[in-house]
Amino acid sequence: MKPFLVTCAFAASMLAAPPTLIQNATVLTVTKGTFTGSILIRDGKIVEAGEKINVPADAKIIDATGQFAMPGIIDCHSHIAADSINEGSVSVSSMVGIEDVLNPEDIAIYRALAGGITTANILHGSANSIGGKCTVLKMRWGKDAHDMIFEGAMPGIKFALGENPKRAGNPTGQRIGAANVPPRYPATRMGVEDVIRQAFTDAKAYQQSWKEYNDKVKAGEQALPPRRDLKLEPLVEVLEGKRLVHSHCYRADEILMLLRVADDFGFKIRTLQHVLEGYKVAKEIAAHGAGASTFSDWWSYKVEAYDAIPFNAAIMTRKGVIVSLNSDSAELMRHLNDEAAKTMKYGGLDETEALSLITINPAKQLMIDKRVGSIEPGKDADITIFDKHPLSNFAKVEKVFVDGQIYFDRNNDLAERAAREVEKKQLTDKEKEQQRRTAPGAQRRPAA
Amino acid sequence: MRSLAFAVLFTLPLVAGQDDSFLIRGATVHPVASAEIQNGSVLVRDGKIVGVGRNLAAPKGTRIVEGKGLHVYPGMIDSGTQLGLAEISSVRESVDTGEIGKFDPQLRAEVAINPSSEHIPVARANGITAAITLPMASGGDGGGRRGGGGGSIITGQAALVHLDGWTWEEMDVKKSAAMAMRFPSIISGGGRFGGGDLPPDIAARFSYTETKKNYETELRELKEFFEEARRYQKAKGANLKGFKTDLKFEAMLPVLEGKVPLVVMASRERAIRDAVQFADQQKVKMIIADPRELGKMGPELKARNISAILGPTLALPLHDDDPYDAAYTLPGQFYKAGVKFAFGSFNNEFSRNLPYQAATAVAFGLPYDEALKAVTLNPAQIWGVSDKMGSIEEGKAADLLITDGDPLEAKTQVKQLYIKGKTVDLTNKHTRLYEKYLNRP
């Protein structure tokens, strides 16, 4: 087996694609300053980035004169590429996972790429107090579902607090139980706390039963293994620090509630999602060590969003929280750079701080910052090239690299449009022809 | 403490009081109607612009606003909002956008505008000084998500208001700027005709046959309503004994007389074509609202001088197989077709982002000057108030913003805002909560 692998590795290196050089770009590394120069990419990784670098003779040159290269944008909260997102029948659905419903053909993936996104955290919806297992994807458009998964990324789980988990089964504006559906517990924020606390109480007991079983086996005693519980297993992983909690939340009270429940059970909340009133309890969020992933300026679409302010990201940043901006929307996802620019207006973040909100900070929150989130040697060559500074509203994406491969190129997209129109017409014509032939009462004529 | 209010005081020394006469000098003035003026001045007297140029002399005692390093632009106009009519979009009790009934031309948006809405100071802090408020269930021809009125065709009279005033009367610019309506269209879920306007779960409830029938019924009802209105007009003119006033038809008279335009929600090419044909038949003035595609309708609109209010540029394409930038390039397509247009947010929450909708259009082919016009002078012309606002010209209301840069860029700060020459408070719910919690011990 070993010699075979070595042979394969050797063959692969012989066949390895030549390196790629992006040159003459304004490079916004986010973590190592900004310069005008080049980025050298080999085998999907950034090898070198600087004002002057040695150019290998076989390098494929991509001239980016006048353009701006930044790390591929990371969206910490998205629902694209998922066929379904809410298992709404129960309020604890930790047994379900996004990985099982991935749709690699969702056009939203390509559109996200065209907005400069290279990585996204795909989560369940917010109908349930404990939603399900999330998946981090790289936007490798054209690959199958398995190959889009960000290999090695920490697994996560979605929680949800406030109006949404309250509302499932208990529609807004009506008495609890008034709808044509059976009422579902919880119907209050108190109930949401109870549901989460109960779930972790169960998870602790389940964890203990396995510990006792394993101890007995180790001691050579006879023991029956506990019955596997697929709902509690992910929660045990949370208790053991092997699964990251990303929790949908709005109001300050519920944010604090979740932090305290986590404290009581000895686990950490990795990110608070939306967290629109995070600015009110930024001190407590920072003390717990949770990250915050928020919107730039959404507000007033529901009661719990009425105190949302566009200064949220800036206040939390100033108070020591690691903050990211997310989209939660296939549309907003396409211009997170515009959203980042707003934090310069609202709260006075500087350019690097603003860009960090959509690059290195979400990478840290997802614990993939050793791989992505900045332009540094050794990191994945996930790079987005804009024609203007990405914090300008006049900028548009020109090229997007994932693992050193070009997955979006505006010029190619434009060039291919005419051919795609022709193909589309052929397909619709064929369909029309088929419909005509199979229509009831259609006269069957011999083909001309 | 970094307070916006303090920043403004430092850069622009102001005299307290209600004085609406002053001279801004030393700023880069962008009149929109003409070329920008470096080191320019704007002279305002009694709330009106009385001079624009270089080195204007001001009468003795005139308050001076030093604009060195800053820019002066005309206030921006959002041509489609529900400002004042809706507060929290998920709470029906706070939403007054869509009434019950298919034909409600008698409804007036203006009288239901809550001048204390938190949305008003939030929108204007970003340079929006006037807005069209539409009695209309949520944008597009889907409609009726939360505000009710999902089945309405004529939804009522849109008001053009200044975003400042103690009462809606004080906010008034034009009480009945347009008659709002949704043009009947075929929307269904699934299959060849599906997708786009409605959430898939809602769209899937309707088959194509069903929606087509519904569309034909609505079209017939619409024509009948106009015919009845014309008979009413005739009867009224004939001064017959026993003539009874009907408020619905009374409200239709200015539309039939061509004094008030119909502002028609029509998202797809098919609906736009139907609407244009309807305008021809009925000989009424028309403005197309929130179109999502232009198709072959450019020459048709241009030939009839029909303007358009474009909804958010930052939107998803209508169809899966549309180019990814279909919505981004739409304003450029309207420009190339020679169709006059203005931007509308068709939203309250995001009214303040109106300038960025214009900026994205520039990135995808719209000339910059046209983008700026589409949030200032074009809407003033489309709504018939270009004698009063929309540019920095003598005789117009002093709706002005002073900025530290291009207002179409998100990072730009609005330093000062004037509506009818009056200094407008830039603080709002958001700045107040910011100050409060930034300083939380």
What does this 3D model show about the protein?
- The complex is a heterodimer of chains A (448) and B (441).
- With 448 residues, chain A is α/β, with parallel strands linked by helices.
- Chain A is built from 13 helices and 16 strands.
- The model of chain A is unreliable at 1-14 (pLDDT under 50).
- At the A-B interface, helix 2, helix 10 and helix 13 of A face helix 10 and helix 13 of B.
Uncertain runs of chain B: 1-18, 138-149, 188-197
Largest sheet of chain A: 8 strands, mixed
Number of helices of chain B: 13
Q: Compute the gyration radius of chain B: what is it? A: 23 Å
Count of helix runs of chain A: 13
Number of strands of chain A: 16
Percent in strands of chain B: 15-25%
Report the order of strands and helices of chain B: HEEEEEEHEEHEHHHEHEHEHEHHHEEEH
User: In which range does the helix fraction of chain A lie?
Assistant: 25-40%
Helix/strand order of chain A: HEEEEEEHEEHEHHHEHEHEHEHHHEEEH
**Alpha-carbon distance between the two ends of chain A:** 61 Å
Number of strands of chain B: 16
Mean pLDDT, all residues of chain B: 90
Write a brief caption for the model.
The complex is a heterodimer of chains A (448) and B (441). Chain A is α/β, with parallel strands linked by helices and 448 residues long.
Give the SSE map.
The complex is a heterodimer of chains A (about 450) and B (about 450).
Chain A lengths: L1 H14 L4 E9 L5 E9 L2 E6 L9 E4 L4 E4 L1 E6 L28 H7 L3 E6 L7 E9 L6 H4 L7 E5 L2 H5 L21 H30 L14 H7 L4 E6 L2 H14 L5 E4 L7 H7 L2 E4 L17 H7 L4 E3 L10 H10 L5 H6 L3 H6 L17 E4 L10 E6 L2 E5 H29 L10
Parallel strand pairs in A: 1-4, 1-5, 6-7, 9-10, 10-11, 11-12, 12-13
Antiparallel strand pairs in A: 1-2, 2-3, 5-14, 7-8, 8-9, 14-15, 15-16
Helix pairs in contact in A: 5-6, 5-7
Chain B lengths: L3 H8 L10 E8 L7 E9 L2 E7 L8 E4 L4 E4 L1 E6 L37 H6 L3 E6 L20 E9 L5 H4 E11 L17 H4 L4 H30 L9 H10 L5 E4 L3 H14 L3 E4 L8 H6 L3 E4 L15 H11 L4 E3 L10 H10 L4 H6 L3 H6 L17 E4 L10 E6 L2 E2 L5 H10 L3
Parallel strand pairs in B: 1-4, 1-5, 6-7, 9-10, 10-11, 11-12, 12-13
Antiparallel strand pairs in B: 1-2, 2-3, 5-14, 7-8, 8-9, 14-15, 15-16
Helix pairs in contact in B: 5-6, 9-10
